[in-house]
Amino acid sequence: MYHRTRIRLVATVAAAGICALGLTACDSGDSGDTVTDKPKAKASAPASAEATTDDKPAAKEPADPATPDVAKVGDTIALKGLEDGSKLDVTVVKVADPAKSSDEFSTPGSGKRFVGVQFKLVNTGTAAYSDSPGNGAKVTDTDGQQFQPTFADITAGPSMSSDVRLKPGAKALGWVVFEVPKGSKTDTVQFAMNSGMANQTGEWKLS
């Protein structure tokens, strides 16, 4: 009996140590990584005020189209981070393909081009968000090749900061630039919190 009790105690201590290290197996009961391409439903337009100015009942607004099954440019995906209360609404606002460098120092390599993706981040959680968002982004082409961000500024607009800190309710907007072969056709862009280490990854269709 003593031997069995000791084994259970050691196992419990070991599990607690793993959780203390912040490994994903102990994070909010999440048992594995997931990739979600389901966008949030967009808010419907408010009813017209003039429709209720007389005794007639207000006309019914036409039903909103169903939320698309796959997120695309302009859509928002709700994502969770590793820590409790860590949440973001992430929107792929625009895509610049090809993107043009804003200076003569940043140019794509031979046979390559810049592709810019503008992200909007809104802290919807209860915890402060602090990260380098570009670390959690990647672009995939139709052949399945994946490309990480590169350090470059483009004429489309300001780059996303490499040190974003957002209190709950705050937002950030900026471009993340990728360097891809000229012959590659971009297919999707992904984003995950915690510099790409979060269990949940958002995916948007580009083509």
From TrEMBL:
Cited PROSITE patterns: PROKAR_LIPOPROTEIN
InterPro entries: DUF4352, Immunoprotect_excell_Ig-like
Basic and acidic residues biased stretches: 53-63
Any single Pfam family the record assigns to this protein: DUF4352
Keyword Kinase among record annotations: no
Record's compositionally biased regions (Low complexity): 42-51
Transmembrane segments: none
Residue ranges of domain DUF4352 in the record: 87-192
Keywords: Signal
Stretch list, region Disordered: 30-71
Top-level taxon of origin: Bacteria
Name of the protein: DUF4352 domain-containing protein
Organism: Streptomyces cuspidosporus
